[in-house]
Amino acid sequence: MKVILHIDFNSYFATVEQQANPRLRGKPVGVTGGDRLKRTVLGAASVEAKRFGVKTGMQIWEARKLCPQIILVPGDSDKYLETTKRFLGILKDYTPYLEVFSIDECFLELYKTRGPASQVSRRASSLAFARCGYAPGPPPGCHPSFCDAEQIALYIKQRIKAEIGEWITCSIGISYNKLMAKLAGSLQKPDGLVVIANQEETMKVLDQIALDEICGIGPRIKKRLNNLGIFDFKTLRKAPLEALLASFKSYGQTLYNMARGIDHSPLIPFYEKGEVKSIGHRHTIDHDTNQEAEIKQILLKLSEMVAARLRAKNLVGKTIHLWYREAFNLASHSSSGNVFFGDGMQNTIHYTHDGLEIFQAAWKIFHLIWPARNATACETGGPARNATACKAGGNKNKIRMVGLSVSSLKPVLPQNLSLLPETAKQEKIIKTLDKVNDKFGEFTLQRGILLDSTVIRRKPNPFLSERRFKL
DNA sequence: TCTGGGGTCCTAGGACCC
DNA sequence: TCTGGGGTCCTAGGACCC
């Protein structure tokens, strides 16, 4: 039987801030996305803030309403990544089978006996026992693996507190697959430790929780299940597989399994995870706009940010995806709930990591899909993507968010670099630009057209989900 | 005052090539 | 006049996660 530990740090960014700054300890703290307080949400809330009902993802004004004394701290991605590297270093002592799930979450598989790292795994496990002074040998009635795992989990918690900081706490779930380990970890917060050791315990837990408490059932799937008369796992378990397949296609099998606590997904250790599949940025403008010049500047900046990250990872990409969201219009959408209108489109060009080329592709797409532009295109007989937009005479709605991402990535090999003098010159310019910016900060050197731009923060987003860590 | 920003995976359908 | 089938690439759209 597999033994999986899921480790989830509680109120991660907030506790890291409290650890770093003693004056924040014991106080309600909210971590924000930077200096901006308008149109932004909390990236994390401390335990003390949560007591007031403040939650991660809440808007600033809402959090302030619930807890006027909340201390807002701008997020610092470097600090969080650094802390993550440190706790991963500790976890590696217990098994090489370590999957990094997000900046504050990971899975560990203990006692794996097959595969190339099994020797290391066994060594690591015995080392763990030695370190915590625990002699393997479970009390009667307890599955040996799980009892040992529980001891290891306790020891991991101790080490994190001792080596990283007493304010950094984590919840650990232990079970026989990833799905149930993650669920176990979510049952007790903060600083929890829950074991789901067998089928019987799985059923007991599943029958007590809501459908969307399990990883993989979000609001949409939940609603569709509700429409089928399924409101809990007990009922879901009674649903025939055929019915679920008919409604959810292949995902029906996943739901069928979930209701029984079955999950065959393998743990993918960090050293087997591939490179990233896409790199993107999006930006919500602090005021709504339909000014092309303004949108152009934002897109240029996003393009340069994406390109710089591609170059930093030594990647090129060829699929450019641009999308936007229109301003929220309460008057016209209030009855239909939270509806945001927007559009997006992707286009494949040649492999590149040049911000200007990425921008040019994105700008072309933008002109094809933005209804206001479509209206002009209709009038002038130019290319219009959306006939409805033409008929409606264009859309007067303003834009609140634009996003840009590059996918279809591949590593840059020396032979891929063009030998054309113009391209070589461009490459040289870009390299110099990167060097200066690496040393003196993002956008120290930038394209002239960006000089007026103050629209996007200089620092990268602290909530950026870096799923790759160098260990 | 009115939901941020970073990702992943999956499916379906069309175009195109051999 | 007119078409089989496999493979691959591309795009759109939906859903989920932290």
How do the helices and strands line up, and which of them pair or pack?
Layout: E1 3-9, H1 12-20, E2 29-32, E3 44-45, H2 47-50, H3 60-66, E4 71-74, H4 77-91, E5 98-102, E6 105-110, H5 118-132, H6 144-163, E7 170-175, H7 178-187, E8 193-195, H8 199-206, H9 219-227, H10 233-238, H11 241-248, H12 251-258, E9 278-289, H13 292-312, E10 315-326, H14 330-333, E11 342-352, H15 355-369, H16 371-380, H17 387-391, E12 399-411, H18 421-440
Parallel strand pairs: 2-4, 7-8
Antiparallel strand pairs: 1-6, 1-7, 2-3, 5-6, 9-12, 10-11, 10-12
The protein binds a DNA duplex (18 and 18 nucleotides) through residues 33, 36, 38-43, 56-59, 61-62, 101-105, 215-221, 249-251, 276-284, 319, 328, 330, 338, 340, 344-348, 401, 403, 405, 408, 461, 463-467.
Structure description:
With 471 residues, this protein is α+β, with helices and mostly antiparallel strands. Helix content is 41%, strand content 18%. Helix 13 crosses helix 15. About 8% of the residues have low confidence. It binds a DNA duplex (18 and 18 nucleotides) through helix 9, strand 9, strand 11 and strand 12.
CATH topology of the largest domain: Alpha-Beta Plaits
Name given to the CATH homologous superfamily of the largest domain: Reverse transcriptase/Diguanylate cyclase domain
The helical percent reads: 40-55%
How do the strands line up in the largest sheet?
Answer: 5-6-1-7-8
Q: Could you tell me the mean pLDDT?
A: 83
Give a count of the beta strands, DSSP E runs of length 2 or more.
12
User: Biggest sheet: strands, sense, closure?
Assistant: 5 strands, mixed
Instruction: Point out poorly predicted stretches.
Output: 115-120, 129-142, 330-338, 460-468
Overall number of domains: 3
Under the CATH scheme, which architecture of the largest domain would be assigned? 2-Layer Sandwich
What is the C-alpha radius of gyration, as a whole number of Å? Answer: 25 Å
Structural class: alpha+beta
Name the helix and strand elements from N-terminus to C-terminus, one letter apiece. Answer: EHEEHHEHEEHHEHEHHHHHEHEHEHHHEH
Strand content: 15-25%
Distance between the termini: 28 Å
User: What best-fitting shape do the alpha-carbon axes yield?
Assistant: globular
Instruction: Give the count of helical stretches.
Output: 18
Q: What is the level 1 CATH name of the largest domain?
A: Alpha Beta
